[in-house]
Amino acid sequence: MDPTHQAGRTGQAERGSRRTGGEPDRAGDPRRALPKVDSLLAHPRLVERLGVWGRPLLTTMARRALDEARASLAGGGQPPPLDALAGAVSDALDRLTSGRVRAVVNATGVVLHTNLGRAPLSAQALEAVKAAAGYSTVEFDLTTGERGKRGSTVSALLRELTGAEAALAVNNAAAALMLILGAFARDREVIVSRGELVEIGGEFRIPSILEAAGANLVEVGATNRTHLADYASAIGKRTALILVVHPSNYRIEGFTAQPALADLVELAGAHRLPLVHDLGSGLLRGRLGDEPALDESLSAGVDLAVFSGDKLFGGPQAGLVVGRGELVARLARHPIARAVRIDKLTLAALEATLLTHLSGRPDDLPVLRMLAVPLDELRRRAERLATGLGERAKVREGTGVVGGGSLPTERLPSVVVEITPLGLTETAVVSGLRAADPPVIVRTERGRVLVDLRTVPPEQDDLVLRSLQEIMSAR
Ligand SMILES: *Cc1c(COP(=O)(O)O)cnc(C)c1O
């Protein structure tokens, strides 16, 4: 809010109030008893906040509270006490600022918690972000002293890591898809299986992304079964590409069929069409439920593979595209690429994450470390926590989920501390934990509070214990 604008409004309100006073000013008009902005700001409740948030913001808030009080006094009544006015200013400030991004302790056990920022960054990535935040070599070549190319190291590292011919990093995976569709499929057709027209979250639906990019969707097959022949018969003169999307967050089970990726690659190749594979999560190799692994996608021969820089890749949110050199080069030159380019902080975090993957120390990435934490270790930590909480806590086996729209049906065996809040509702405990500093986020189940330490860095175990003890002894 612009304080000058506010000041103007206050002026008007004051003139207005004199006018609406109409009859001669009565000395008893309660509006005249309202304090001046400066006296309100001198209230003990606001003095400290003035130090934190500064005069312009608090002045705006104080003027607004006084305006409101003045308006409600227009019909007569008693002016609110100074304490109440200061309280109103303070509450308004809380409403404005309490939603800002703050660090929390994630004790839900959901490793890729969509609402808690998905992947936490590694120590190396954090360090890199800090270094990049000031002046840094984002587009500067230290060897020649000339202009460098943003993202060239990320591309080189991605090529090393994946063995792909070329690579490009943009803001997020949705942006990467927009770029690919906008560059290759504008006013042309894109073939997608009916079982893959997924909503990834919020506004991200595959059909809407296609539409927004100006591509025409050609749906093939049925929700549960799509065959190679369905794709083959949909190919025509206006076909731009075949898009294969991993339905990250849901599963179709039972009577299902989907052609092998390699067969689709062959079909696309025979028609000189690119095959684009949106993997969602960046699982590099190996098995994790039925997440597609990047190495398998590339060895099946897809032309472009798209995946997230966070999720299972364990880095910052980014959209990573790897594949055929000629296609990636066209993407990099496209105007949409400039609109969705990654900023220097993401770039730095991504470089560090890629180097960690390349170093063969995946345990340095919190996401991979947390997914792989041994149950014995979890049990030991859970028992310490339960001991500190006494009779109301017990340790039991539980199941977690990976989260972040990955592995929806995969259960992650875990060990949880189950707390029966004696004399308190579980809601009171949960909201008490949210109000702690730092806030602690937990799950509940049938009146019990569940703490899963899988997602808590061990050095924060004590902090979780203390927050719980404080809330439960305060009743
Ligand atoms: C998560 C996901 C995306 C979107 O990734 P963002 O980085 O959040 O944009 C796209 N496609 C699939 C299949 C996904 O699972």
From TrEMBL:
PTM-bearing positions, type N6-(pyridoxal phosphate)lysine: K311
Function: Converts seryl-tRNA(Sec) to selenocysteinyl-tRNA(Sec) required for selenoprotein biosynthesis.
Segments of skewed composition (Basic and acidic residues): 15-32
GO MF term set: L-seryl-tRNA(Sec) selenium transferase activity
Family, per entry: Belongs to the SelA family.
Major localization listed first in the record, in broad terms: cytoplasm
Record's keyword terms, sorted: Cytoplasm, Protein biosynthesis, Pyridoxal phosphate, Selenium, Transferase
InterPro entries named among the record's database cross-references: PyrdxlP-dep_Trfase, PyrdxlP-dep_Trfase_major, SelA-like, SelA_trans, SelA_trans_N_dom
Superkingdom, natural source: Bacteria
Localization (cell): Cytoplasm
Catalyzed reaction equations: L-seryl-tRNA(Sec) + selenophosphate + H(+) = L-selenocysteinyl-tRNA(Sec) + phosphate
Top-level enzyme category: transferase
EC number: 2.9.1.1
Residue span, L-seryl-tRNA selenium transferase N-terminal domain: 31-70
Transferase recorded as keyword: yes
Gene: selA
Stretches for region Disordered: 1-36
Name the UniProt record assigns to this protein: L-seryl-tRNA(Sec) selenium transferase
